[in-house]
Amino acid sequence: MIRKLYSLLMHGAQPLLRRKLRRRGAAEPGYLEAIDERFGYYGTSAAPGALWIHAVSLGETRAAALLVQALRERDPQLRLLLTHGTATGRAEGAKLLREGDVQAWLPWDTPEAVRRFLAHFQPCAGVLMETEVWPNLAEACKRAGVPLALANARLSEKSLRKALRLRRLSQPAYASLRAVWAQTDADAQRLARLGARVGGVFGNLKFDAQPDAALLERGRGWRSRIAQPVLMFASSREGEEAELFRVLAAQRKLAHAGFARRDSDRAVSGIRWLVVPRHPQRFDEVAALAQQAGLSVSRRSEWDVEQGPHDTDVWIGDSLGEMALYYGLADVALLGGSFLPLGGQNLIEAAACGCPVVMGPHTFNFAEAAEDALAAGAAVRVETLEEGVRRAAGIAADAAQRERHVGAAQTFAQAHRGAAERTATALLSLIA
Fold first, then answer.
1. Closest C-alpha to 2, from 195, 151, 148, 165
2. Spatial separation of the C-alpha atoms in residues 271 and 327, rounded to whole Å
3. Strand, coil or helix: 110
4. CA-to-CA distance for 83 and 105, rounded, in angstroms?
């Protein structure tokens, strides 16, 4: 009965979804592509028997790429069906396609749409990346005999509490999964409370990512020509940039007036700042916020490849797929999403690039990775953004301290690799 009520709500929300897609499409045209697929209508032909991998957004798609690489090393003839929920995820997923592969939107979770999806593509099995467990989709796969797994699975304490409030809906969905491979022991315990059959704790696939060596080297080359320390706000979220610019403007006024109260205050005034927003549709907004705070701005899209950043107060990283370049350019990174109660962003790529991280109090989306990085010396934690700015400036100004953090970050990243191999082995066993 509860799932019928849920299905009615999902049906009723379809006009709102269409309106949202049109609104998002004005800023990101990718959302206007193949809208009918969102409702289970697919115009492209598809041969049955492909392995279906669902990666909702950019981060999940990059994790899926590591799994795909490990799978193809074992089975070069493997055909894939890739589905996504966001325009950035779909654009990134297109890079993984080979001849015979298919890409589509995952449909809105109504019984009819998911049945049409499964009938059209007839996958041999499905893999949901990280968190995307939908009640009607899980039930439809069970009825159609499509084994459905949850890979690189994570579940925060907050998400668990929410799911338990709707347990009559969530528990049957998790219990219907054929296999669940968790990132951490804590994730495994939380998933088990929802009825999931956890088949292993394999670690986080994202540790297996190798930074783009050319981008990393270019960033370091640019950094070598800059006299001042460079601090980065990595994957910043709405509300965080405005607070950063407020802090910087205040520190700048103090320094110009000769009222800097401590060495760290004076250090902040001599910093070059690189801000890389998490969501590309906010690039213009963040640049405008910096200018409103009285800070001069230049954007990555304006830079010459050879010359690098311009001589301004703030640089905006307004490009996709260049995080290795940005981490190479930075001495220290503040972790976006962690200074407001948003759960934090992933710090693994920063560690792999040897960039020390300063994180705020809110890292519940990546709790174990954050605590492990803290214990390893790859990251430090502060309570406020203002404190984070001072701490990051202090690390950047102290060469010996920074080198200790750099070494710890690289060691931390190396020690946690291997999830892609373990997941690929388990998945091929499930298919067989």
1. 165
2. 16
3. coil
4. 5
**CATH code for the domain defined by 24-204+417-431:** 3.40.50.11720
- Closest-CA residue to 324 (of 203, 204, 221): 221
Q: Which residues of 75-114 are buried (b: 16+ CB within 10 A; e: fewer)?
A: eeebbbbbbbbbbbbbbbbeebeeeebbbbbbbbbbbebb
Longest dimension (CA), the chain: 72
Q: What angle do CA 292, 297, 301 make, to 5 degrees?
A: 130
Q: Specify the length of the chain in residues.
A: 432
Burial of 67 (0-12, 13-18, 19+ CB in 10 A): buried
Active-site positions read 60
- The two structure tokens encoding residue 364: 């519940």
| Average pLDDT, rounded, for the chain | 93
pTM for the model: 0.81
Asked if 24-204+417-431 and 213-415 have one fold, the answer is yes
3-class state of residue 301 by DSSP = helix
**Annotated domain spans of the chain:** 24-204+417-431, 213-415
**Alpha-carbon gap, residue 242 to 245, rounded angstroms:** 5
Superfamily of domain 213-415: Glycogen Phosphorylase B; (3.40.50.2000)
Residue type, 360: G
pLDDT > 70 fraction of the chain, expressed in percent and rounded? 96
Q: How far is CA 175 from the centre of its chain?
A: 26
- Cα angle: 75, vertex 146, 182; to 5 degrees: 70
Among 206, 155, 203, 148, which Cα is nearest to 181's? 203
Three-state DSSP class for 14?
A: helix
Phi, psi of 55 (to 5 degrees): -125, 105
User: What count of other Cβ atoms lies within 10 Å of the Cβ of residue 253?
Assistant: 12
Contacts of residue 11, defined as CB under 8 A and 6 or more positions apart, other chains included, come to 110
- 24 Cβ contact list (under 8 Å, min separation 6): 31, 87, 281
- In angstroms, the CA 302 to CA 287 distance is 13
How close are the terminal C-alpha atoms of the chain, in Å?
Answer: 35
Structure tokens at 57: 């957004």
Instruction: Give 250-309 pLDDT, tens digit per residue.
Output: 877 765 555 555 554 545 567 999 999 999 899 999 999 999 999 999 999 999 888 889
3-state secondary structure 198-239: EEEECCCHHHHCCCCHHHHHHHHHHHHCCCCCEEEEEEECCC
3-state secondary structure (DSSP) of residue 81: strand
